[in-house]
Specification:
TIM Barrel, eight-stranded parallel beta sheet, 39% helix, globular, 319 residues, zinc ion binding, single chain, two-stranded antiparallel ribbon, alpha/beta
């Protein structure tokens, strides 16, 4: 039986159940938080436990949290939350950047001032095989990003490190992409060049597009389409997001679609009240409470919903 790593230990992949494939718990700059933010650790953890417990009550069993370097990953805080909820939490390794690599990698690597094998690969493998820092928590998947800026040298270096790590370890990948510039196609090319299996790749934020030709090209290459920003209606209205998923199901692509919100309990990128006003449905509950009923109204069958929520995430991990 294939196993998948969670924050509280390994489980059989069959135990993942209904899975949201792209949900953060906390997104923040820890340096900023320590110096400038008003932060009540106890209250933030209690709020996260409450939100994730509500999600359990809606029938979700697992979330994948792709918070990596560049997004404020801090596993001890997530551990404290995981100990208080039944929900499975899967965490990632990788680097989140739209431009340059972090300064810790600027001068070390192949052909650089300190010429050595790619250090990011070694760090990613450690997170996957031994655990993150001294927590004992092993990453379950890999994460990288390519935004509107495209394949900058830094983005390419991270992406190739992620692809090479996946090829060595078999770990699946989630990629943040910019649908309007079709950067998912670039990600597929680069990852495949490094030996990654595209059938184990989620092209994240594909749900920001209604371009069926683009989405079908990604799916035909074997990857999963991350229809994973439900609630971010400021980027694409709810009706268009739901219509696109329903049309993909109608066209026979149900087995290539996965769902999520890209939501978080707390994110320091935006003022909290402004975020709630601009995107009132951007929360963990939106898919269960609003999206699934809307899909059913459009003729998507319960078996197809099970495929998107249960079967596809399980297959992403080799189940």
């Amino acid at each position: 039986m294939t196993q998948v790593q969670t924050v509280t230990g390994p489980i059989d992949v069959e135990q993942m159940g209904a899975t949201l494939v792209h949900e953060h718990i906390f997104v923040m700059n820890e340096e900023y938080r320590l110096n400038y933010a008003e932060w009540d650790e106890h209250a933030q953890i209690a709020d996260a436990v409450e939100q994730l417990t509500q999600l359990e009550g809606l029938g979700i069993d697992t979330i994948m949290d792709p918070t990596v370097l560049g997004l404020g990953r801090y596993i001890p805080r997530v551990q404290r939350i995981a100990q208080q909820v039944k929900l499975n939490i899967l965490v990632a390794t990788g680097v989140y950047t739209y431009n340059e690599v972090p300064f810790q990698f600027h001068h070390s690597g192949p052909g650089l001032l300190f010429d050595q094998p790619e250090p990011m690969v070694q760090l990613f493998l450690k997170d996957l095989n031994d655990g993150i820092a001294d927590t004992g928590v092993r990453a379950a998947f890999l994460k990288c990003a390519i935004e509107e800026q495209g394949l900058t040298p830094g983005v390419e270096r991270v992406m190739r490190a992620v692809g090479a790590t996946s090829a060595q370890s078999g770990a699946p990948i989630t990629v943040h992409t910019h649908a309007a510039s079709e950067s998912g196609l670039v990600a597929q090319r680069v990852l495949a060049e490094e030996g990654a299996d595209l059938s184990r790749v989620i092209i994240g934020h594909s749900g920001d597009s209604t371009d069926l030709d683009y989405l079908c090209r990604l799916a035909d290459a074997g990857s999963y389409l991350g229809m994973d920003r439900f609630g971010l209606d400021v980027l694409l209205p709810f009706e268009e997001r739901v219509d696109t998923v329903a049309e993909l199901c109608r066209r026979g692509y149900t087995e290539r679609v996965v769902l999520a919100h890209d939501a978080s309990c707390s994110i320091d990128w935006f003022p909290a009240e402004a975020r709630k006003a601009a995107a009132p449905n951007w929360n963990y509950r939106h898919i269960s409470e609003d999206v699934l009923p809307a899909l059913r109204e459009r003729g998507v069958e319960d078996a197809q919903i099970t495929t998107m929520l249960v079967d596809n995430p399980r297959r992403h991990f080799g189940g």
